Design the sequence.
């Protein structure tokens, strides 16, 4: 606390903003500074992978998956060396038919069928995508790791998918 006395002898006290041995001109690094830097760098958006491909059938399980890659960066911010690590914590699958699914895993290709969706109606030019929610950790000058208090979202680019309807046909062997 710093106190000043005015001409009438009234003392007014204010909280100190820095320690006596600190230079008030030295920059302070906040979590908000790191968050802004991460937003400026950008986190990887993932392309949704679809099986069987660019076409699927009504009422057939369509497989969705993504292929996340590690995100690690070292930056200098306000004179501090910052190490950043971002890890996906949630995948939001937008099917573009009015439905959405959320998972904690990126899914896998066939035969896994971890993340699937069954389209109920035929449609041309459906544009599914996956949005990834990241949790970011950082450390300053090689110190202890800290977690940013909010998650960050990276929306993936839309894929193209046609949903077809198949008609059964009986044949003789």
Sequence:
């Amino acid at each position: 606390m710093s106190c000043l006395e005015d001409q009438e002898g009234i003392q007014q006290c204010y909280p100190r903003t820095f320690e006596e041995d600190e230079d008030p001109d030295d920059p302070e690094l906040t979590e908000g500074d790191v968050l802004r830097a991460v937003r400026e760098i950008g986190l990887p958006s993932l392309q949704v992978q679809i099986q069987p491909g660019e076409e699927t059938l009504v009422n057939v399980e369509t497989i969705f998956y993504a292929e996340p890659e590690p995100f690690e960066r070292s930056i200098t911010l306000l004179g501090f060396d910052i190490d950043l690590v971002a890890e996906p914590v949630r995948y939001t699958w937008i099917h573009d038919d009015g439905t959405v699914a959320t998972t904690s895993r990126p899914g896998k290709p066939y035969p896994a069928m971890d993340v699937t969706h069954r389209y109920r109606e035929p449609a041309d030019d459906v544009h599914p995508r996956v949005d990834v929610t990241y949790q970011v950790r950082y450390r300053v000058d090689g110190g202890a790791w800290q977690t940013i208090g909010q998650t960050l979202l990276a929306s993936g680019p839309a894929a193209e998918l046609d949903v077809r309807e198949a008609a059964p046909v009986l044949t003789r062997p």
Summary: The helical segments are 31-41. The chain has one helix and 14 strands. The longest helix spans residues 31-41. The CA atoms of residues 19 and 101 lie 51 Å apart.
